Amino acid sequence: MSISISVLSDLLQALPHLRPQLYFKASLTALSHAMEDQILAATLEQPLVIASFQRERFYRQEAHRYQRLAQRSDQIYVLSAPETDFTNSSEYYEKIAFRPDDALSQEWHLVVIAQNYATCLVCRESIGSLAKNRQLRELSPSLDMDTARRFEGIWTAERGVSLKAAELLLGRILSYRPELLDKIDSVRQRFGIGGRKSDSKVLQQLSEYACDIDTDPFVQRLVTYLQASQYKLHKAYRSIAAQARKERLVNSISTAIRRSLNSQEILKVAAQELGQHLGASRCLIYRAQASDTQAIIEHEFLSPNVLSVAGQIWPLENNPLFEEVIQQDEGVCVADTINDSRVSGSKALWHLVEKFAIRSWLMEPVLFQGRLLGIVELHYCSHTPHDLQAGELDLVKAIATQIGAALIQAEAYANLEDLNQQLEALDRTRSNLIAITGHELRTPLSTIQVCLESLASEPDMPLELRQVMLNTALSDSERMRKLVQDFLTLSNLESGRVEWHPESLTLQECIDLALSRIRTRVATDPLPKITTKIVPNLPLVRADGDWLVEVIAKLVDNACKFTPPEGQITIQASRNNHKMVEVTVADTGRGIEPNRLEIVFDRFYQEEGALRRTTGGTGLGLAICRQIVNGWGGEIWATSTGKNQGSEFHFTIPAIEGSPEQTRSRVKSK
Q1: 250-263 pLDDT per residue, tens
Q2: Measured distance CA(348)–CA(238) in Å, rounded
Q3: What is the pTM of this model?
Q4: For 192-220, what is the HEC assignment?
Q5: Are 153 and 23 within 8 A, CB to CB?
Q6: CB–CB of 297/375 below 8 Å?
């Protein structure tokens, strides 16, 4: 016999008058248990019982029942496709392990034949059952989908149908266990399975063996299981409806996220939808981090006649509920604030409970990859406590997850805008770099070329003119060297490739070195008057001496460029506080407009524009000063009252504690 043929198909072909019906798994379970209970309740001779369980895991659920049935009959046959240790055996009853690819693996059979009654259940699992179960599981993962499996087949008490079903199944059993032939032949002869009897003889046989059978266990078992099935079905419908409501709410939040990257708009929609869906008196959503001590309530849903908390400062420091949320990364639910020790033991929380009539309280964190972004709070202000159900808590968690993703998305968008601005700034820097380097390199190169060509082509040139040409070429080559040096210096500073060598320094000595460097470099040009004002007993400073001299020299050099020879430059130094010394380089020159006081420290900045400069330079000097000052932990800034009002450049240096004399003695002792 082919093992690929369905028993149900063979039965319907042999008995064309049968019409298969649709059954759910729960109904088949009820019918099967009722049929088994009828066997246990009967006191007649031993019946024939054939049960096929599709898979071993389904058999395992009923194995204990068949051990009880084995006490009533020695003609019990159990079929199943093995998954672990189900094998052919005859310990309590006959076990038949069929191949997993046998059509039996898709069917469910139970046939009971006694002398005075017979029932059979022969069903095949519906093809669309698996797909529908998958869809339901996606809607409600917690739902037991096994009870929703569908079968089509026959359940009947007609003896002729039961005998034919037994004949088909016994033949299938012999194909797997031929050694059972004698035992099966005996039960065939006993019940007339596979023989040809007239209808009158069958009726006579039935009358001979008829007796009163108590059907109450059968009926009671059937009613019980059908009621259980109805309850499970109702529970499934409620779960699906709740899941649908949850999906609608999540979809509304997702729609708000897709519609807007504005985090404020997203939080506003989330507060309204969540508070309304869960019937809360008040729903709050606010931004918060683990280290915050307070938060401002910006987004709120309110039920009618409930006091608003919008704009209130919400305490987070010494807040037991907030601290518990931070420690556990989980939400905290207080069913009754009046009887909760966390609330009654905190003055701040109890004040909120009394002021805003909070009877039940839920605080759920908005997290993203373990990082706290905000808090969702639900307040119930009725006279009786509100006990949030598990499904409601899961919904709040799901919405909090959506909010976290939305906030990160909005934050990423804001960061993208910042990056775009930085890219625009870099593009401007590139343009300035091209313009400045083009001007600063082309001009001196042209001068050097003219001077060298003149010297080469005119050997009879007077000595004085030859010296002028050489001096001009040397001056412009120095200008080019300084340009390249500034580029390299700023690049090293910005990339962190500079090694700092901090030491204790006397500020006056550093100022003198810087001024000496300037006077040597511009010996041929008249300089403004430079004066130094340092307060008495100024402490030593701690910095890298070479870089400190470089900062002072560049600031003074910058002041000289924009101050006429009849002007004045003043270098001042005083204590900014007990940890810092403040140095100021003030001039009476061109001044700076207030809206440019910050951008003067940008790379390549030139007040007159890249190609309209009268003073020369690369526009890198102040940018280099800022990098150096930031390197030792100081600050640098500029002040000016406006155009032609002069300007002041300030920077701070870490001071060494103690009087200058004490500091010098400590330095010498080292």
Answers
A1: 677 667 666 666 77
A2: 40
A3: 0.40
A4: CCCCCCCHHHHHHHHHHHCCCCCCHHHHH
A5: yes
A6: no
